[in-house]
Protein backbone atom coordinates (compact mmCIF):
# COMPACT_ATOMS: atom_id res chain seq x y z
CA UNK A 1 0.00 0.00 0.00
CA UNK A 2 1.12 3.53 -0.66
CA UNK A 3 1.80 6.00 2.10
CA UNK A 4 -0.98 7.85 3.83
CA UNK A 5 -3.55 7.56 6.58
CA UNK A 6 -6.80 5.70 5.90
CA UNK A 7 -9.91 7.38 7.29
CA UNK A 8 -11.90 4.86 9.32
CA UNK A 9 -14.74 7.13 10.43
CA UNK A 10 -15.81 10.73 9.75
CA UNK A 11 -17.39 12.64 12.61
CA UNK A 12 -19.14 16.02 12.28
CA UNK A 13 -16.57 18.79 11.91
CA UNK A 14 -14.04 20.11 9.40
CA UNK A 15 -13.43 16.74 7.74
CA UNK A 16 -17.13 16.07 7.21
CA UNK A 17 -17.62 19.65 6.01
CA UNK A 18 -14.84 19.09 3.44
CA UNK A 19 -16.58 15.96 2.16
CA UNK A 20 -14.21 13.30 3.50
CA UNK A 21 -15.63 9.78 3.68
CA UNK A 22 -14.51 6.54 5.32
CA UNK A 23 -11.97 4.81 3.11
CA UNK A 24 -10.33 8.01 1.85
CA UNK A 25 -6.55 8.00 2.26
CA UNK A 26 -4.94 11.27 3.38
CA UNK A 27 -1.57 11.61 1.65
CA UNK A 28 -0.74 15.32 2.01
CA UNK A 29 -1.95 18.25 4.09
CA UNK A 30 -0.91 21.84 3.42
CA UNK A 31 2.13 20.66 1.45
CA UNK A 32 3.29 18.17 4.11
CA UNK A 33 3.42 14.48 3.17
CA UNK A 34 1.34 12.43 5.60
CA UNK A 35 2.50 8.88 6.39
CA UNK A 36 1.23 8.43 9.97
CA UNK A 37 -1.59 9.57 12.22
CA UNK A 38 1.03 11.37 14.34
CA UNK A 39 2.24 13.37 11.34
CA UNK A 40 -1.35 14.27 10.49
CA UNK A 41 -2.10 15.44 14.04
CA UNK A 42 1.13 17.47 14.21
CA UNK A 43 0.40 19.14 10.87
CA UNK A 44 -3.19 19.96 11.88
CA UNK A 45 -1.92 21.76 14.99
CA UNK A 46 -0.04 24.25 12.81
CA UNK A 47 -2.85 25.00 10.36
CA UNK A 48 -4.36 28.48 10.11
CA UNK A 49 -7.98 28.70 11.23
CA UNK A 50 -8.83 31.62 8.94
CA UNK A 51 -8.34 30.04 5.52
CA UNK A 52 -8.69 26.68 3.77
CA UNK A 53 -5.57 24.60 3.11
CA UNK A 54 -5.10 21.92 0.44
CA UNK A 55 -5.71 18.33 1.49
CA UNK A 56 -4.67 15.59 -0.94
CA UNK A 57 -6.57 12.35 -0.64
CA UNK A 58 -6.87 9.16 -2.64
CA UNK A 59 -10.46 8.00 -3.10
CA UNK A 60 -11.05 4.64 -4.82
CA UNK A 61 -7.61 4.86 -6.41
CA UNK A 62 -7.96 8.44 -7.70
CA UNK A 63 -5.93 11.25 -6.12
CA UNK A 64 -7.67 14.58 -5.59
CA UNK A 65 -7.21 17.82 -3.71
CA UNK A 66 -9.96 19.26 -1.52
CA UNK A 67 -9.92 22.42 0.62
CA UNK A 68 -9.92 21.84 4.38
CA UNK A 69 -10.85 24.69 6.69
CA UNK A 70 -10.70 24.37 10.46
CA UNK A 71 -13.70 25.71 12.34
TrEMBL record:
Question: What start and end residues bound the annotated signal peptide?
Answer: none
Q: Which residues form the PDZ domain?
A: 1-61
Q: InterPro entries under this entry?
A: PDZ (IPR001478), PDZ_sf (IPR036034)
Query: Do you know which Gene3D superfamilies this protein is assigned to?
Result: 2.30.42.10
Q: Which SUPFAM superfamilies match?
A: PDZ domain-like
Give the top-rank taxon of the lineage listed in the UniProt record for this protein: Bacteria
* Protein name, UniProt field: PDZ domain-containing protein
Amino acid sequence: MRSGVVIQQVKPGPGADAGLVAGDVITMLNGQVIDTVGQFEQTVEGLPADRPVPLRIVRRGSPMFIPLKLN
